[in-house]
Design brief:
Largest sheet: 6 strands, mixed
CATH architecture of the largest domain: 3-Layer(aba) Sandwich
Strand content: 5-15%
Radius of gyration: 34 Å
Number of domains: 3
Strand order of the largest sheet: 4-9-8-7-5-6
CATH superfamily of the largest domain: DD-peptidase/beta-lactamase superfamily
CATH topology of the largest domain: Beta-lactamase
Distance between the termini: 56 Å
Number of helices: 24
Structural class: alpha/beta
Shape: elongated
Helix content: 25-40%
Length: 737
């Protein structure tokens, strides 16, 4: 003890160190009473520290509410004993009023002298004087919380958490998760604290379902359909003395789940909790996240999906299983992360103006509700939902709710498949229409090129109201010749609730398009009709319906489980935002069915409309484009393909469009955007009140989803106000590079 343990203290005391904390330990060679910790030992504090070693600085002790001081009946007695032993300052003492009373009683009984109290008080006053506290002025309480919790503090905290997360086991390098289309995830919570933030962040990356049951057999049964089980062990952060241990029941459940399933254990407490686990053989991956804070939970979930590399090293050894310094490094898969604006050089304060725009949208009834998402440099830094599903204000909009994307379908469903087909030379951009759809060989549209169709420069009319041809002309009622209230082989395509259309009418739609007149002059005219044709060409080439094609080729890999055609097949109606109170065709509230009439007549799957999503999954697709086709560890499209389509081919003809993508206006009178984005930027808008844009130069992705057509499509306030592009300007203004 003298030559090794105490030696450093002698050196520190010689150079004038100002304070020492006494530990709550049992050291038999210094204190013979095994029940008396060093923090309460006069032999250690007064005899050794003060007299033998000559220490004159402040002596502090904590741990006074820890177990072990069994010589004393109450916490007040323990606190008094700490003073009697020679401590000057007591930290975290229980029962302060009781401690004051017992000190007064000891002074009265002369077991504690006033000189002893004054000795410590004078030392404390000297320390305050050395720090200049005699000039202390009361703190201004205005903005105190903000002053104590600055943005810089949070950024540092986030970075510390990110760098600390430690991957100590990673069987077959399964983390970070790749090939999401082959996996089905469940989440099971162990521990006595919440795991809500962890689960919600996991759900941003793919479909993850929380599985609970009162009995182990029931839980095991419910877990059967899942390939991977993420187990979060969540223990309270309330204070350092909260237990970090598994219960015996939890240890049994953990081992039994791991015996049957691929388990990822994420420990949100002390790594010492792992000492209780007798065998790690069946646990495929283990992450130590150290604390159960909101930030720790959210960042740990991002680690599992490869937003950043694992870098942490285990600070202690866990028996013989994991030695100090253990920690695997993982790959960065370039998936969207989630952070605060300042991490990507944007201003939270300036972005707050979006809330003001939101108030105006709701107040002016431009839309009953909406979602706004902003990402920069691969980080989602603003994601909010406002208002309600309808003006009845019964269902608040959630970030997970899905909207009818309308024409965003063109760039988020048809276009990625066209790009894929172009790479594979199934639909080359220089091909003529008759080459990709031979049935159009003898039509007036035979020689229109794919490039012209995608640029809206193919002389196609803007649209054809197909549904009107199926209505009784005098009454405008839907003709029973074409519609049925029940599904059958003759009426298989669902247009809306209790409304099915004859299967033969799909051919009629294509005949109408084939026979339609071209516009007189070749000039820019936005048209949906080209995307009816692309849908047909894609399905003919790949022998699958468009909704299946794009889901298998893109959405599953992206983890875009909230992006889909035919949302009622996947989601409860309460998660789908309704569009219009239709009184002209479907004669009902359109809810869960595509708003566009033509897409509805195709059974809900159109090349130009029909896609539903939340803002988060729209952002994944746009980020994939920004990253030149790469996302989640996979090259879904070739970089040169993305560049080829994000290009104007008819700019000299005053066509601002790229191939499928909308682009900024060619003149200063901006309409497509705020006029503040780069020429390399691209995006699209949708009839239902949707808008998304990505800018390679600023690295910003912006998504705005709404149902502005509620209560009906005559509600054009959102469009006339240009509020979507005004928000885009506010986003650009928030950059502080």
């Amino acid at each position: 003890m003298d030559s090794v343990e105490i030696y450093p203290y002698k050196q520190l005391f010689d150079i004038g160190i100002g304070s020492v904390m006494t530990a709550h330990l049992s050291v038999p060679s210094l204190e013979s009473d095994a029940k008396l910790p060093t923090s309460l030992s006069k032999n250690v504090i007064t005899n050794l520290l003060k007299q033998e070693l000559g220490f004159n600085g402040l002596i502090i002790t904590d741990g006074l509410n820890m177990k072990g001081a069994s010589n004393y009946a109450t916490s007040a007695e323990i606190n008094l004993a700490a003073i009697m032993a020679g401590n000057d300052l007591l930290l975290i003492p229980n029962d302060v009023p009781g401690t004051v009373n017992i000190i007064k009683k000891a002074l009265m009984l002369k077991t504690l002298t006033e000189e002893r109290i004054n000795f410590s008080v004078k030392k404390i006053l000297k320390a305050k004087y050395w720090l200049g506290l005699q000039n202390f002025k009361p703190i201004d309480l205005v903005n105190l919380t903000e002053d104590l919790n600055t943005i810089q503090d949070e950024l540092l905290h986030r970075k510390l958490v990110e760098n600390s997360l430690t991957l100590i086991k990673n069987h077959q390098n399964q983390l970070p998760f790749t090939e999401l289309q082959t996996k089905k995830f469940a989440y099971v919570k162990l521990g006595d604290d919440t795991g809500t933030d962890f689960l919600q962040m996991l759900k941003n990356y793919t479909k993850v379902e929380e599985i609970t049951d009162q009995n182990l057999d029931g839980l095991i049964s419910k877990l059967k359909p899942y390939s991977h089980v993420i187990i979060g062990f969540h223990k309270s952060n309330a204070n350092p003395w909260k237990t970090f241990k598994f219960t015996d029941k939890e240890l049994v459940w953990l081992q039994e789940i791991a015996r049957l399933k691929n388990v990822i254990l994420d420990v949100f407490t002390s790594p010492y909790s792992l000492l209780q686990i007798k065998s790690f053989a069946n646990i495929e991956s283990i992450v130590v996240s150290y604390q159960n804070s909101k930030i720790s939970q959210e960042i740990s979930a991002q680690l599992l999906f490869g937003v950043f590399q694992a870098k942490g090293k285990l600070p202690v050894s866990i028996g013989d299983n994991f030695k100090e310094g253990t920690g695997f490094t993982t790959a960065n898969l370039n998936r969207l992360g989630y952070s605060i604006p300042e991490e990507v050089n944007m201003s939270s304060q300036k972005l707050a103006v979006i809330d003001a725009f939101a108030d105006t949208i709701l107040k002016e009834k431009m839309a009953p509700g909406f979602q706004v998402l902003v990402a920069r440099k691969g980080k989602v830094i603003f994601h909010k939902s406002y208002g309600y599903h309808t003006d009845e204000k019964t269902t608040p909009v959630k970030n997970s709710d899905v909207y009818d994307l309308a024409s965003l379908t063109k760039i988020l469903a048809s276009l990625p498949m066209i790009m894929k087909a172009e790479q594979e030379q199934k639909i080359p951009i220089n091909a003529k229409l008759f080459e990709i759809l031979p049935s159009f060989k003898n039509s007036n549209k035979a020689n229109i090129s794919v490039k012209e169709l995608l640029s809206h420069y193919g002389r196609l009319p803007a649209w054809i109201p197909f549904y009107k041809e199926t209505q009784v002309k005098n009454t405008k009622a839907n003709s029973p010749k074409f519609y049925s209230a029940t599904k059958s082989d003759s009426y298989p395509l669902e247009v809306a609730e209790n409304l099915y259309i004859t299967k033969s009418y799909t051919d009629s739609i294509y005949k109408f398009i084939k026979k339609s007149n071209l516009i007189e002059n070749q000039e820019y005219l936005y048209s949906d009709l080209g995307y009816y044709l692309f849908k047909e060409a894609l399905e003919n080439n790949y022998k699958k319906p468009l909704n299946t094609l794009v889901d298998e080729a893109f959405y599953q890999s992206l983890g875009a489980d909230r992006m889909t055609y035919l949302p009622l097949e996947k989601f409860d109606k309460s998660q789908i935002v309704p569009t219009e109170k239709d009184d002209y065709y479907r004669n009902q509230l359109v809810h869960g069915y595509v708003h566009d009439m033509g897409a509805a007549m195709l059974g809900g799957v159109g090349g130009h409309a029909g896609l539903f999503s939340n803002a988060n999954d729209v952002a994944k697709m746009m980020q994939m484009y920004l990253q030149k086709g790469y996302y989640g560890g996979k090259q879904l499209l070739n970089p040169e393909t993305v560049d080829k389509f994000n290009k104007r081919y008819f700019a000299n003809k005053k066509v601002r469009r790229g191939l499928g993508f909308d682009k900024p206006e060619l003149t200063k009178n901006a309409a497509a955007t705020c006029g503040c984005t780069s020429d390399e930027s691209f995006g699209h808008s949708g009839f239902t009140g949707t808008f998304t844009w990505a800018d390679p130069k600023s690295e910003i992705v912006y998504v705005f989803l709404s149902n502005r057509v509620y209560p009906n499509m005559n509600n054009t306030k959102l469009v006339k106000s240009s509020v979507r592009t005004k928000i885009q300007q506010a986003i650009q203004d928030a950059i502080i590079d």
